Amino acid sequence: MLRRACGLALLALAGLGLPAHAQTTLEWKFKEGEKFFVEEVSDMRQSLSVIGKDISQKTRITTVTSYTVKQVSGKTVRLEQKTESVNVNSSGDGVGGQLEKIMEKLEGATFTVTLTDGKVTKFEGYDEFIKKVAGDDELAGKFGKAILSEDLLKKSIELTFGNLPDRAVKPGDTWSKNSLIPFGELGDFKAANDYTFKERDKDGAVITYKGTMSYVPPKGPGAFGGLLKIVKGKMKSDNAKGTVVFDAEKGRLVRAASSMLVRGSLTVEIMGNQLEMDISVDQSTTTRLLKKNPKSD
Fold this sequence. Notes:
CATH class: Mainly Beta
Number of domains: 1
Distance between the termini: 75 Å
Helix content: 10-25%
Radius of gyration: 23 Å
Strand order of the largest sheet: 5-4-3-2-1-11-10-9-8-7-6
Number of strands: 11
CATH topology: Lipovitellin-phosvitin complex, beta-sheet shell regions
Structural class: alpha+beta
Number of helices: 5
Low-confidence stretches: 1-20
Largest sheet: 11 strands, antiparallel
Shape: globular
């Protein structure tokens, strides 16, 4: 009996020396004066059915954005964001041509962004950007604000620097985040994502997520100066998913990939006439962080 008790005591003491599952803190690390680049490639397939006519379009948008760290104060950082290049390729019979004109004018746009804990607390330069997009064309300005609203640009930045847990985690840990993705006068999408820290690989911490997205129609007189009004809408995605690889030691995103399929219907009013539309959007996006501009190679 004494031998057995001693054996159990030794096992207990040995257990005290066993390492616990190591936890990892996943957060961005910024140094004043440094500059890095984010390349994003988004492929989108859209189909629209209205008044018995089917309209389809394929679009690939490739953007390269640079970030220069201007100031770091605790968990607050001020960045200069510049769109280095934009390439839009569209095919089909949708509004690709108009989208290309708007997106191409994003090239060269510079904004000053203040981030605190991954959230945009200040965003400067938007009014100057809209003036560049529209010139003296008031309708073009309204179209630009509808397609590339200030809130949408801010949310895009938060998606790059956010989605990380607010605590140290170990493989198997989970967390959730809810967000509102704005589309200006066209409405919003509510997103609810569940994240899991899967493992560590040679490139960094691997995070996966699954989520849902549901559409919220806009309130107000309508888009494009009241020319188009969304009366009601029901669109949803139940299979939004993605993967993020983050280098905890360097405090940097390595790469990310996401996909979603949104389906539903909209009732829109144009010049007093209501139209029913069935809509499907299949989108996949890949993102990678680079030390230099790939367009300069």
